[in-house]
Amino acid sequence: MNPQTILVYDGSFDGFLSCIFIVYDQKIKNPIIRKASQTNNQMFMIVEHIVTEEHKAHRVWKGFKEKTNATQQRDFFKVFLSEIKGVENTLLNYMRHVFEKTHAPSTDFSNKNILKITQVAKMVQREKHRMEAFVRFQLTNDNVYVATVAPDFNVLPLISHHFKDRYADQKWLIYDTTRKYGLYYNLSSVEIITFENSNTISSKNIEKHYNGQERDFQKLWSTYYRSVNITSRKNTKLHLQHIPKRYWKYLIEKTNNS
Hints:
The chain is of the alpha/beta class.
């Protein structure tokens, strides 16, 4: 029995592309690509830890871009950000299909990998739009607007440009409490940041550092929301379709009036 090879990487996109480079370079037939953070309970496996190398990742991505259009490239990246278990192998199989075909159609849904990528990309895109719509900032004593989020998928890399363009004149931080990292805008560029103590950024801790006017603004907004909310016209089913309940925790008008 020939043991199967597991390629373990650091979880980054470049790390994943480095794995694909190794698959082709070493002619590995049926590898399993897995993040280092995931446990391995399988026996009789060859485990190879892949070092992230940007030049190898760049070569793979360059080759992929030459065979695909911008939409396919964006969808590929979105699916990677989904973090769905085993998604790396779906993406590897799709990339193999692209490299092997003279023309790789993106709508050939008879191909299970193309179908899966299309479906997951739409899910990630939907989460991106909802984060852009429902994120609410709170002003702290440091004059930094802070928001905490816990999206289903790792969409922070996808929403960076939206918030940089929309809030270009103020410092802000969007922190993913699930993945323990955030985006910080310093009035000129967006940086990826982490904290030694991940509990530093939480809704309760942020509340302790509100700017003096923040509570007044929140009360004013809550009062306005109650005043324009016509109870007799309330349509809960329609409301939930537009704003699913799991997003209510981001909305001041919900947290202060629920």
